[in-house]
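Fold this sequence, please.
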Amino acid sequence: MDMERNPGVKEICDMKMVEGKEIPIFFAVDDGYCPFLAVALQSLTDNASEENIYCIRVLYTDISAENQRELLQYEKSNVRITFDNLSSHIEKIEDKLYTRDYYSKTTYFRLFIPNLYPQYDKALYLDSDIVILDDIAKLYHTALGDALVGAAPDDVIRHNEAFREYAEKVVGVADYRGYFNAGILLMNLHELRRFRFEEKFLDSLEKIRFTVAQDQDYLNRLCRGRVKMFGRVWNRMPIPDAGIRSEDVKLVHYNLAFKPWHFENILYQDVFWRYARRTKYFDKIQKIREEYTETERFRDNQRHEMLIHMAKMEADGAAVRFAL
């Protein structure tokens, strides 16, 4: 059935990739996040150039057939969507992958892309809580050289002293301004394989347990010194910043608790709802917002405060260890 839908694009997306018009893009979601992936896909396809071929792979262990059918409606003549079940791969190491709060083990899937997809030398990984406002191919074509990843500085880290100290003292980046957000990644898969990234990550799991940003912390730790920083306009978080004009923003990332489907008065919420209204999940997303309780909102705010507390405790502990 897949071959009948779009055979030409399928063949290009499955073969060995060469630099050119093919843009490999990865997402990782479960059933609960499919409505928001639909919003991301709506914005991606609306801003896609007809000159490119967009090869979208959705990594999952739990997506219903109904949700897959709904999301496949975003395929176009130059957009191919495939669903890759990682259950068998994750089962082998599931006991090593730890999570907290609302995170699921899908957050780790991006770390396995280099070895699972040897046909690609370069790819984008995108979180699903985003809206894309420009052709994502422009970001893909950023030159990486021998950098392992391309990414944007993390605004949440930049705006909080406890997180800044955590990035430097616990994660080990030389300067907190070089700590990046892993929700929007341009991955140099060829170099990551040469670096033996997955092997080093699994080895790190046995020795280090990051409690604040988990997979993002491992990425920052392992890739330090080999990161190509790109502009925050390609990973704009809903945090006020006079240094960035709204008209320059290329991608909005509603990370952490900055969810317009949970809270009111989120920066750039109008952009999210503009695209959400055009999806078949709009009514469901509205219902999620309407049914989200004040208790749940309070819990989200408390989680953020606890995260700051954890970062401070970890940083203080590291400082004591270094002093001994």
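Residues 2-323 form a domain with the Spore Coat Polysaccharide Biosynthesis Protein SpsA; Chain A fold (CATH 3.90.550.10). The longest strand covers residues 53-60.
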